[in-house]
Design a protein that fits this description.
Elements (H helix, E strand, L loop, with lengths): L1 H13 L5 H9 L9 E6 L9 H14 L4 E6 L3 H12 L4 H23 L6 E2 L7 H8 L1 E5 L21 H11 L4 E6 L4 E2 L11 E2 L1 E3 H6 L11 H7 L5 E6 L5 H6 L6 E4 L2
Parallel strand pairs: 1-2, 1-5, 2-4, 3-4, 5-9, 8-10
Antiparallel strand pairs: 6-7, 9-10
Helix pairs in contact: 1-2, 4-5
């Protein structure tokens, strides 16, 4: 360990930060897991929150029950209102960074609403899942709510195809799970998981219980249940090497997934 640290320090003083030998030495340094006992769950905006009371209230009850046994970082999606904003902003020829800020405002609203519903249980909303008070909240009530959009704002990397922000709330929640070194990442949607096509528009689509990132790309599943650019983040991750997509409209699915059961679709990094 001491030799590795000394070598890395020497390289940092002598080489460019893109030097291959320096990067290899940095890769060998141990990666500290900040919240290894926590699980990130992403509550879909369009799939869950936009459905209103019928979908959200049962999920709130389930979250309150499971937080006794599980430490939860609860991220929110943006949903239909963000899509409407994207449509208007794109027609106005505004850049991807502006669209990101608009989408963020909607995810923030959904986090605020979910936070109000969970407030009487002591579960608070934090800004962008920044660490500051998160450990205290988790120690006291085992859960916290955050807005799922990654904090890129105007500095988001533009998509090569269009101005829609390529990294949205699926990516933002995944990045929290990966960077904090969490235990697991669960996406709560309104479908049982991934299908061979969009089951909402293709009734004959076949359910896929487990698949790798490479298989998804090879099969061209771009109209999938998760943001496609998030798959590249999964493939390159150190800690979160698989994610699970579950149907949050089915009572008990989230509880089972948190317990380690294979409930929906598992997507693996390799």
């Amino acid at each position: 360990m001491a030799n590795t640290t000394a070598e890395l320090e020497a390289l940092l003083m002598q080489r460019s930060l893109t030097d291959t030998q320096l990067l290899a030495a940095a890769e060998e340094a141990p990666d500290f897991r900040i919240l290894p006992d926590a699980t990130v769950i992403k509550i879909g905006g369009q799939s869950i929150i936009d459905r209103g009371r019928e979908a959200v209230y049962p999920l709130v009850d389930e979250i309150v029950a499971v937080r006794e046994a599980h430490t939860l970082l609860i991220g929110t999606g943006a949903g239909t209102r963000a899509r409407h904003l994207y449509s208007i902003a794109a027609e106005l020829n505004l850049p991807a960074g502006v669209l990101t800020q608009l989408g963020t405002s909607v995810a923030d609203q959904n986090a605020a609403m979910l936070g109000q519903l969970l407030a009487k249980y002591g579960i608070s909303v934090v800004s962008h899942a920044g660490l500051s008070a998160v450990p205290l909240y988790l120690a006291e009530v085992n859960a916290v709510v955050f807005s799922g959009m990654p904090p890129y704002g105007l500095w988001i990397r533009p998509s090569p195809a269009d101005v829609i922000p390529p990294y949205r709330t699926d990516a933002g929640c995944f990045l929290v799970a990966e960077q904090f070194g969490c235990k697991a990442m669960i996406f709560v949607k309104d479908e049982d998981g991934l299908y061979t096509a969009n089951p909402k528009t293709s009734p004959g689509a076949t359910f896929i219980p487990k698949i790798s990132v490479d298989e998804m790309k090879a099969r061209g599943l771009h109209d999938s249940i998760l943001e496609f650019p998030m798959l590249d983040l999964l493939k390159e991750a150190r800690h979160i090497r698989e994610v699970q997509v579950v149907n949050g409209l089915v009572p008990g699915n989230l509880t089972r997934a948190l317990a380690g059961e294979h409930v929906g679709t598992i997507i693996t990094a390799s």
